[in-house]
Amino acid sequence: MDNSRRLSKQRSHFSAYPWLQNPNLQATILFFLLLAALLLVWELGVQLKLFSPVMPAASRTIADFWSWIVDPFYDNGPNDKGIGLHLLASLQRVAIGFFIGSAIAIPLGIAIGLSEVVSKAVDPFIQLLRPVSPLAWLPLGLAILKSSEATALFVIAITSISPTLINTKFGVSHVSRDYLNVARTLGASRWRTIAKVILPAAAPQIVAGLRISIGISWLVIVAAEMIVGGTGIGSFVWNEWNNLNVTSIITAIVVIGLVGILLDRLLGLLHSWVSFGQ
């Protein structure tokens, strides 16, 4: 059978089931097939003792995952809390640290974007600090602040500055000269030009920076909490590892991933909103 006849036969087969031609449905079916294949390989690997004895079976992990999800907010003391309480503590830290970092990065990015002299003066600091690993700030934070809670906020804030700062600078410095000339012709003051022309025009780039920063903040908080301790999803992962509860660690990984997707989607919606007309 040649290719043309084979393709024609496939098309006639799909035409009998038009709902199968929906790409989203096809992607969903493929997703569940891949997930089922992964779980099957996982389960067989454990049952046939191909993996380390520490590795739990997929069926046991799913059962433990469900037990964490159905009762996420129980509190039996400092060392026995539901995963929901750990998650809320981490989100609170990320929100505060992210807000502090953004409050520094956006005004500084606007100042750098508006002045070539300031941009050249500050750029060496940005280039020097940008490649520094977030965890490298932990000892410095502990030394300066002498508080694990404040250090976690410090690390989140300091690591969320660079993406927002760089994107804000880029957006402000690339505002169309036509917009600025019109504002100048109409006699708009400097502050009014910034508020009514520059910020709206640069908003998509600023929000893109915020979107990157929130992702980095969420990555950093897990690692930071493993070191500074206390209540939080990072501390939860570390404590469960010390107890060799691998199923709980896998549960936390799934929850961390889902929350990361949710945070990214929220900033993605904000980006779509401020990018109207572009």
Automatic annotation (TrEMBL):
What GO cellular component is one of the record's annotations? plasma membrane
What SUPFAM superfamilies does the entry give? MetI-like (SSF161098)
Q: Does the keyword Membrane apply?
A: yes
Keyword match Membrane: yes
**Where does the sequence pass through the membrane?**
25-45, 94-115, 216-238, 244-263
Q: How does it sit in the membrane?
A: Multi-pass membrane protein
**Entries under InterPro entries matching the protein:** MetI-like, MetI-like_sf, NtrB
A biological-process GO annotation:
alkanesulfonate transmembrane transport
Q: Which residues form the ABC transmembrane type-1 domain?
A: 87-267
Q: Which family does it belong to?
A: Belongs to the binding-protein-dependent transport system permease family.
Protein name from the UniProt record: Nitrate ABC transporter permease
Q: Which organism is it from?
A: Scytonema millei VB511283
